[in-house]
Structure formats: structure tokens, C-alpha cells
Predict the 3D structure of the following.
Amino acid sequence: MIEPLFWLGLSILLVATSLTAVLVAAIPALQELARAARSAEKLFDTLSRELPPTLNAIRMTSLEITDLTDDVSEGVKSASQVVKQVDQSLETAKKQAQNVQISTISVLVGVKAAWKTFTRQKPVRRNTALHPHEQNKQLKIKN
């Protein structure tokens, strides 16, 4: 009967020794695991403190960029309208310049014709008035 108790005691001793060896080997690993858990906890705390303001700042930046994009878009539309107005003004000025040119040519032609008419030598007119005795003859013929 001693033999089974011996083997039982020996196996309990070996199990206890193995458990002690495992615990001795596991203590540094568990300490590192505890340090990693504390570091992770600090990281999560930092993230929970810093992430919402950062996300809010990113959101605000996005809104500001959208506003700036809208402003730039409105500026481009306004510049486009100004360019169209300038083009229309140039076309109007071009038409008016053509009208002035035509009017100037017309005035010059008129002045030239008036000058020719004014400076032309007057033709010598025949005296169509008949002498009084010839007028009587014509009166008699008409009757």
C-alpha cells in the first residue's frame, strides 16, 4: 500500500514543482501584460480626450472649405458675368464706332458736295426778259 501513496505523493510533488516553475516563468510575462494593458489604457484615455476635438476641428475645416468653395464659385460666376458685360460693351462700342464712321463719312460727303456747290462758278444766265414791244407780240399771238 505504500507504493500507491508514494506514487501519489511523488506525482503531487511533481505537479506542485511544475506549477511553481510555470508561475515563476509566467510572472514576468504577466507583468509585461499588465504594463501593456496600462499603456493601452493611457492610449485609449488620450484618444478619448483628443479625438473628439480633432474630429470637430476636421468637421469645422470641412465646413470652412465648403464655404470657401462656394465663395470662389460665386466669384467665378460674377467674373463670368463681368466678362460677358465687357464683351457686350465692346460689341456696343464697336457698333457705335461703325455708326460714327458711317456718319462721319456721310457728313464729309455732304460737306464736300456743299463745298463744290458753293464754290462752283455760277453759269451765266441769259436774260429771258423780253423787251416791252416783244411782250406785246407774244400777247397777241396767245389770243
